[in-house]
Each structure stands twice: as C-alpha cells, then as structure tokens.
Amino acid sequence: MQILNFKNVIPDTRGRQIVLIIAILAGFITQFDSSAVNIALPSIGNDFALNAILLSWVTTSYLLATAAFLITFGKVSDIYGREKVFRTGIIVFTIASFGLTLVPSAGLLIAMRVVQGIGSAMIFGTAVAILTNLSSPGERGKVLGIYITAVYFGLSAGPLFGGLLTHYLGWRSIFLINVPIGIIAALLTTRYLKNECIEGRKERFDIVGAIVYGISIFSLMFGFSRVPDPLGISILAAGVIGLLIFLIYESRVRFPVLDVRIFLGNKVFALSNLAALISYSSTYAVTFLLSLYLQYTQNLTADKAGLILIAQPVMMALISSLSGRLSDTIEPRIVASIGMAITTTGLFLLIFLSAITPLWYLIVSLVIIGIGYGLFTSPNTNAVMSSVEQKVYGVANGIIGTVRLLGQILSMGIATMIFSIIIGHVIITPDYYPQFMTSLSVAFTFFTVFCFFGIFASLVRGKIR
Does residue 135 carry a pLDDT above 70? Predict the structure, then answer.
C-alpha cells in the first residue's frame, strides 16, 4: 500500500497505514452487509412469510437506526473522542451481526438490524473525520478516495457473495461473515488507535435535539410505509414538522447536536450536501427494486441475481479512487456534476424495464449508474470536508453520513410508498407481477427526474480552491 503523508497524530508510518486499513475493514463490512441483505430479501420473505412492505423494513430498519444516531455519535465523538466511538461501533456491529445468525422471528430480525444500525452509526460518524484529520489537504481526496473505494468494494461483494451465500448456505450466513472481519478490526483498533482526537471537550451534549431528531426521522419513514392511509399521511406530516422544529431548535441552542449554522454562509458545504441528498435519494433503492425484479419477474436464483447486480458497485469501486485523485487537481463540482449527469442517464434507461427485457440491457444500465455514482461521491465528499474547519470535522462527517442515510431512507420510503399505493400490503406472487412492474416504472421515473435536478445543485455549489 502506498505510504500517505499523514499528520503526526499516529506515532509512526506503520501505525498511520493501519489506521487506514482499520477504516477500510469497517467501511467494507457495513456496506457488504447492506447490499447483501437486499439480495437475500426474497429468501428472508419466504422464511418469515413477509409482504413487500415488511421486506422493505428489513433494509430500512438498519438505515433508520444509523440515520437516527449518526449525527448524535458524530457530536459525541467530538466531545469524548472519535477513536473511542469508532472502536465501540465496530464491537456493537460485530455482536449484532452474530445475533442475526440466531434470530427465530421477523420481529427479532428487525430489532437486531436496529442494533446493527446503531453500531454502523458509530463507525460512519467517525471514520471520515479520523481520516480527514490525519491527511494533508493536498492528499485528502486520495485518502478519502481509497476509503470510499473500500466502501464500494463492500457494496460490490454484497450482491455477488451475498447471493452465493444465500443460495448455498442460507441468508443467515451473510451476517456470519461479518464476525471474523469485525473481530480483526476491533483488535487492530485496540492496538493502534489510541490517540483520542477531541475537538469539543468543553461542550455539552444536546440530548433534547438528539431525541427530537430520532423521533422525527422514524415518523417520516413509518409514515411513508403507511401512505395512502390517512394515519400514514398524518405521521408523515408529523415527521416533517418534527424536523423543522429540530432545525429551529438547533439554530438557537448553545451546543447543538447538529450545528445548522455550519450551512450559513458556506455555499459549498450546503449545496454539496444537497447534491448528495439528491444523489442518494435517486439511487439507493435501485438494488432493492432490481433484486426483487430479477428473483420474482425474471425467476433467477439469488446467486445469479447477485452476479448481475454486482455491475453497479464494481464500477463505483473502480471509478471512485480515480475521481478522488481528480478532485485534488480539478474542482470537485465539475467532476461530481458530470457523474450525476451520467447517473441520470442510467436511471432513465431503467424506466423501460419489462418482464422480457434482456439481461444485457439491465447490466448496461447498471454500469452507467455505477460510473456516474463513482465520479460523484469522492469529489463531493472532498468538497464537503475541505469547506469546513478542523474543529468541526466530526460534525461535518456526521452530516455527510446523515445526508447519505436520509437520502437512502427517502429512496426506500419512496419505493415503499409506491408499493403501498400500487400493490398494497400483500405478498408478491405471480398474480401481482403486473402491478409490481408498474411500481418499478413509476419509481424509476421519479428517481430520474429527481437526479436530473441534482445536476444543477452540484454545478452551482462554487469552488473550494
């Protein structure tokens, strides 16, 4: 591995490299788990007799828990130490992964996914901040590109190995594989990650803001799953109002869990996060939807479906490191905006899927989305972290992760809402395939239009140098 020019927070070169390896391992297992679960959903649904809405909650519960706690742990890490929170997150995630191999019911499965999401929040609330703090501005894009590449390799391995594991060993095996990797990462953090980086030692933790935020995010997602029921619409509206109250409260409290003032007067930071929100909202549910499409409508096994779905994250992994390096010399907004335009093209192609669409067409669409996504993410992350001061790296990293998760939750929420309206709370059987295909077309149309508008948010963000 090439030696990077880190600041002297870690005492020697070997230690600095191992910090990056630890981040790579943690980023890999959390994303592997996320994408592998999507390919295993039909098998999980068969075991527990789950309808399309409950199936979406197997994925969404993890995202929801991570989103609800990500900003919280980003702030906690600034006050009490990023390394300490990061290490605890790896341990919690690993224990939850082992628990998921033993759950006897759907309720316990979803509950353990929540615990796993909390561990993921601790990891993602600190990893980028730790790497940013250790890297010089001239190499920050390269460092983040390497880390994001590892994240995308996790996404890449998920559909392929998740499909193979599900097909030959059962869906529980996709959680078991996280355990040895998590143990290795935890041991490495204990040995090498000892120097606590504490920027906000004198601040107090905003418990009220954290509670309001968590309840609002849950209400938002639960409301999506119950639309068009009047109660669902009411809960959805309550979630939106709760988030507005949260933002107003956070702008007035002395030590906010989310310092919304970081957005004021910082156009690059604000619009980069908006572009990220749009990007994640437009793309995350693609794997979820296509996993169901391939295994239901196309009647493929989990391993074959995973082999096809790997096309998108593989391209992300191949492109993201290059795009990170490009963003060290070319303005990130240019590289990221080109990426979002390419992603829009790939989403547009998916609108026309049918029960007889050839698989090569689907693979080409996924490759295009993967190239665009890979060009967008590393430069966008570089722009966000380079636009703030070192003392708020933890908060900025928490915001990046929260925006990502909010986008993913919104993406799943839109897909769930479309299922709820068009299909209803039923198990997907051949009788419901026509409605299922209609749902796909509506979802991809919405995602294409949304991503198209994101191009402009990315373009007008401004320069970082």
Answer: no
Give 297's DSSP letter: I
- Supply the pTM of this predicted model: 0.74
| Cα diameter, the chain | 63
Q: Is residue 250 part of a domain?
A: no
Name the 3-class secondary structure at 6.
Answer: strand
pLDDT reported for residue 92 = 93
For residue 117, the domain's CATH number is: 1.20.1250.20
Could you give the CA distance from residue 356 to residue 154 in angstroms, rounded to a whole number?
Answer: 30
Residue 243 CB: number of other CB atoms within 10 A? 18
Q: What is the domain range of residue 348?
A: 13-205+255-459
Measure the CA–CA gap between 90 and 257, rounded to whole angstroms: 22
What is d(CA 372, CA 457) in angstroms, rounded to the nearest whole number? 16
465 domain-assigned: no
Which of the two residues, 202 and 59, has the higher pLDDT score?
A: 59
The per-residue pLDDT of the chain, averaged, comes to 81
How far apart CA 309 and CA 314 sit, in angstroms, is 9
Q: Is 57 helix (H, G, I), strand (E, B) or coil?
A: helix
Round to whole Å and give the CA distance between 451 and 285.
Answer: 13
- β-sheet bridge partners, residue 135: 6
pLDDT score of 38 more than 50:
yes
Segment (H or E) for 410 = helix 393-422
Q: Is residue 381 part of a domain?
A: yes
Return d(Cα 377, Cα 386) in angstroms, integer: 14
* Residue reference for tokens 């309840």: 215
Per-residue pLDDT at 200 exceeds 60: no
Q: Assess whether pLDDT exceeds 80 at residue 226.
A: no
What total number of domains does the chain contain?
A: 1
Q: Is the pLDDT of residue 392 over 70?
A: no
What phi, psi does 429 have (nearest 5°)?
Answer: -120, 170
Token reading at 155? 């996404």
pLDDT digits (tens, 9 = 90+) for 25-36: 787 877 788 778
**441 located within any domain:** yes
